[in-house]
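Note to self: the last two entries modelled the partners one at a time, which told us nothing about the interface. This time every component goes in together.
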Amino acid sequence: MADQPWIMRTYSGHSTPKASNELYRANLARGQTGLSVAFDLPTQLGYDSDAPEARGEVGRTGVPICHLGDMRALFDGIALERMNTSMTINATAAWLLALYVAAAEEQGASVAKLRGTTQNDIIKEYLSRGTYIFPPAPSLRLIADVILFAVREIPDFNPTNVCSYHLQEAGATPEQEIAYALSTAIAVLDAVRARGVEGGEFAQVFGRLSFFLNSSIRFVDEVCKERAFTELWDRLGRERYEVAEPALRRFRYGVQVNSLGLTEQQPENNIVRIAFEMLGVTLSRRARARAVQLPAWNEALGLPRPWDQQLSLRTQQILAFETDLLEHGDLFDGSRVVEARSREIAEAAWAEVEAVLAQGGAVAAVESGYIKERLVAANAARLAAIESGARVVVGVNRYTESAPSPLTAAGAGVILEIDPEAEREQIERLRAWRAERDAGAVARALGALREAAASGENVMPASIAAAKAGVTTGEWAGALREVFGEYRAPTGVGGARSPALAEDRLAALREEVSALEQVLGRRPRLLIGKPGLDGHSNGAEQIALRARDAGFEVVYQGIRSSPSELARSAVDEGVHLVGLSVLSGAHLPLVREVLAKLRERGAGDLPVVAGGIIPEGDAEALRELGVARVFTPKDFDLSRILTELVAVVKSAHAAG
Amino acid sequence: MLPAELASGVARREPRAVARAISLVEDRREEAAPRIAALLGALPSRGGEERVGITGPPGVGKSSLVSALARVARASGRTVGVLAVDPSSPRSGGALLGDRARIELEPDDTGLFVRSMASGGALGGLASAAGAAIEVLAAAYDLVLIETTGVGQSETDVEHVADTVVMVVQPASGDVLQFLKSGIIEIPDVFVVNKADLGEIAARARAELAAALDAVHAGEQPAWRAPVISTSVPERRGFDELLGVIDAHRAHLEATCGIVARRRRAAAAWSLRLFLRRYGEVGVERAGGASALRARFERELAAGRTAFEAVRDAGRP
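The predicted structure of the combined assembly is written out below.
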């Protein structure tokens, strides 16, 4: 019998709920069969759009949702009872699900019929993505709250989507992806079991756990990885959790294929990469994805336009509806090559799961920095292989000659520009919302939420009541911040080392750095900072690692610093250079503010460099503001970046 | 900026002046030496400040403890300067600084200053410039906290630059046994069992430590007996008590030997260590041996010279 096509989605959302709603409706009209909501960073981190922390970030990486009115507008004209909605939301998952349930109720939907997914996986936030708020213990408790609510009230919903996706983006090998995702699932399941859930209900919980995977260009390895995953999950259910029913042990997963391998150079090549990457998660029927999202070919340049998203959707539709893939059973059963490689991956992954469990599980291995250090080291090895040419990337380190591209020619408007008015409009609506609601009801709802959080009672009912009372995202998260406190995860840079492949080029760099030390009188010092809310620290970590191993003294304080904090640290620490990394697209306002704060502190002469997904026009604007160098994804050669940094320090010293 | 201007900026607690002063004392170029000497000589001597070394094995939670202690001291109105030492890579000479529990810093609070320093070639101990950097901080802030790497010579180094040495231990780590074996148990003035939120095992570590101290001091009546304090960062517990004990130790020094004399003796020992690092054992022999050098340093320090100058002069042929 032919297989059903997977759910087709596109990860999207930007500017305002209204603008995102229009985009969703257009995407559905083009044949998309589910929605995947991207929230902006303030929403993911529990800040209202008018919070000082949110400045410049509103509506940038996704849609801002501050209250029930925003959620209502986001799904206006879309029947939630019939929709399958995936929400990439973690620290504030309980809140966004509460708003979703309240919005569905308003539409007259039967809540029990809601289908979709909340990502709700905090471990990979500590390791890779950075949108965590609370310490591990209360974070796991919130995840368990959402799971228990979902299993009881919305049984077709996937309350947590354990992610290996972001581990691959952080550089993980296939074995590491499986191992750390399974370790995370074990931590979640154990947390649920510790709440006294057992027997049939626990088996239901196991059955509702789903995964969110990545798929790289090495698609044969990917096929084997998904098969290994399927086998290990089944085994975990059988052996550790004694789930008797095979259907509840089925490995269910969705996918966003790899963005890490998409290139800024000759970006049209990414169209082909994305198609091959999709093969890894669709070819093997027994390990086929339930839902697929594809990135857009121009992601490394900036935000994709509707047409770019359409091309990704068409890629999926061609594979599902034009090719004969879905007509057949599993293509690889009995393949010695695939079975041997799957077994090899499964064995290595399982050994690493046991290593994590021996240290006390995923949370302990996050807090000790163990997993993060392994990821930083794996990513360093990957980058060094690209630098040395051992790993071929067409158009980047081989076949770099190109005819002029009509797609990226001047005036082609190759990316989506966010309307700068969107942030202001969003804030106006938020203020009007606050003015109109019943303040007494809001205070009572927040009181009940605090009480539930402190007492250990499930926060979902109180959150849904708060949503209906008109509470905002910032108020909900603020109440929980008071009860749970906030957390900072280890950066993982301290324990990692540059790979051997980089050694030759490091030796030359060390000489340059030593020569610079003679000139400066002390070791050159570099502050690496991530201003704003963006938690994608993989790039900053690799620069920090390589700079240290080249002989710099590197001040690295991790993610989410305010421009004032960075300026103060730069002054106090006596650095020679400030490097700023921003991947959220908010580089212009954030870098401008850091520069202003440096001037206020009398350090306006300190050279600043910036890195991120920075379109050429913005790069020019940054240089005009006085930024000494701008680095983008096409600068894959870390040693060359370091050489540039040495040159910047040298010329600033000569000028000063 | 002239060294004297820099010194008065330090006295006014201007972050930029304090930062530049520390950068200056880190400057290893020959031509910087006269300016360093001038700066150190021009720093006001306050006398009322406290210098506290925080040491203990890696991973024990020193950074979050320093952060919590700084917060409590700030809340009580004291100004705080922190010098946090991180290890240098022996291969590249580079270092990763500040990659630890971040000290919560109000960007506009000039009463709190945080500076990182790499250990340099000192195998995990304090960098050569640490002593001078501490002088800079002591001229600006009421409480100077020195966080060590906790490896190599850091415990014995910190003894020479701090009035009070606080040793942090990890529950259930076997640390206590290690201290006893290595004799390090006799250095600290205060012990802290951190992570008291771990409950039972923290209480046991505290009891073991107290018993070990009893054994070390059996039959003696020491003038100061190192107390054992329990702290918990997540529960914000024990830091007022810790600050109280640190104050008590300083008062004890004042009453017994006098803080000035004690600092001078410690500075002479630190100078000797710096001299040894710079000129080696042969250099020490040539200069008349360790005890003669130490006596010379004590004399010069008593005469109002800085350790920096004393070491330099003693090294001149």
